[in-house]
Amino acid sequence: MAFANVTTILSLREQVAKELAYKIIDAKTREEVETILRDKINHLVSRLDKVYEDHFRLVNLMTSEQLTAYEAIQRRLGSKASREEWSAAIKEWKEAQP
After folding, report:
1. Which of 95, 83, 12 is nearest to 54 (CA)?
2. More confident residue, 64 or 1
3. Exposure on the CB side of residue 45, measured as CA atoms within 13 A
4. Residue 17 CA to its chain's centroid (Å)
5. Confidence at residue 25, expressed as pLDDT on a 0 to 100 scale
6. Alpha carbon distances (Å) from 23 to 30, 32, 36, 40, 80
């Protein structure tokens, strides 16, 4: 009989929730819980800052036509779009270019 390793890929939200749940369960005091939450908030904020830096770096490298297309895609997809949706929309736009 063969055994297989199964790896579940969690979304960022699920990863953070699972990690926090384990850490909070292990906490002994309210202060430890507050420290855990504060540290996680700081980590997520620094991660978000990095994403914004990367985003603005990419936007600054775009031509005006690319920037216009990016803004149109952003309006169409909305703020909750996944990377896959963005990739598909960008691919669609590129294929439509002469």
Report:
1. 83
2. 64
3. 6
4. 14
5. 93
6. 12, 9, 7, 11, 28
In DSSP notation, 26-83 reads: H--SHHHHHHHHHHHHHHHHHHHHHHHHHHHHHHHHS-HHHHHHHHHHHHHH-TT--H
Residues 53, 55, 61, 63, Cα dihedral to 10°: -150
pLDDT at 3: 62
Q: Is 10 in contact with 18 (CB distance < 8 Å)?
A: yes
Reported as a pLDDT band with limits 50, 70 and 90, residue 1 is: low
First CA to last CA distance, the chain: 55
pLDDT tens across 35-66, in order? 999 999 999 998 888 887 777 777 777 788 88
Pairwise CA distance, residues 66 & 78, whole Å: 18
Residue with tokens 């699920």: 14
